[in-house]
Amino acid sequence: MDVTVKTLARDNAPGGTEVLHGLLRLQAIKSRGTAAHAARCAQYARALAEQLRLPADEIEAISVAALLHDLGKIEIPDSILQKPGPLTEKEWQSMRQHPVLSHRALAQLGGFSDVLPLVRHHHERFDGSGYPDGLSGEGIPSGSRLILVIDAFDAMTSDRPYRRAIPVADAAKELVRCSGSQFDPRVVRAFLLILCGLGHSRPLVLTRPGARPEGFSANGDDGPLADTWEPQSAQVV
Ligand SMILES: [Fe+2]
After folding, report:
1. Domain hosting residue 168, numbered range
2. What residues pack around ion ligand 1 (CB closer than 5 A)?
3. For a tag on the chain, would you pick the N or C end, based on fewer CB atoms within 10 A?
4. Ligand 1 centroid from CA 148, angstroms
């Protein structure tokens, strides 16, 4: 995170570091879970961007976008964010506003021009069925396609108010199942290489809040199932 903060201060408006710290603090005040999710996403995003050998300035923009992609959830009521059960259609409509809310908040602050499109489009799906703008394939910014994969992975492997985490191996299978529909297949392949410790980047150190460090191996032998949750889709919001 330090590199990201330093780079933001160098590349954006004066005071960028303070702005980023302030935004991260706001996220933490609103929801410690969202803040922890953002920090893990930034770690995964950097490793994945390096694995894909993206240019250095793009890696920095993706890292900052991964930290702030859910900033707009600050405007979503806790009754929806923390609801311990399935959301109604109306509540889903509110939740699906958060990429636009994140985009609007950062646009008003200024200094985040490289980050804005990545944040706005982090829920677009490769087949065009995502939101907010229904972009598809290469029309989705590459950083947003990357964030969608690591966002889904972290959501599946973390406890949420309405369900328990699933094991890393099951989450990896879900990424594969949704590759080509929800996710960019090239991004999924690169992330699986990192998970298996075969990638260009250092292997990720995966932890689940309040639980033991969790490993992942290519043969899927990563311990007993944590729960019986069977996702119909890797969709996360
Ligand atoms: Fe999101």
Report:
1. 2-195
2. 70
3. N
4. 8
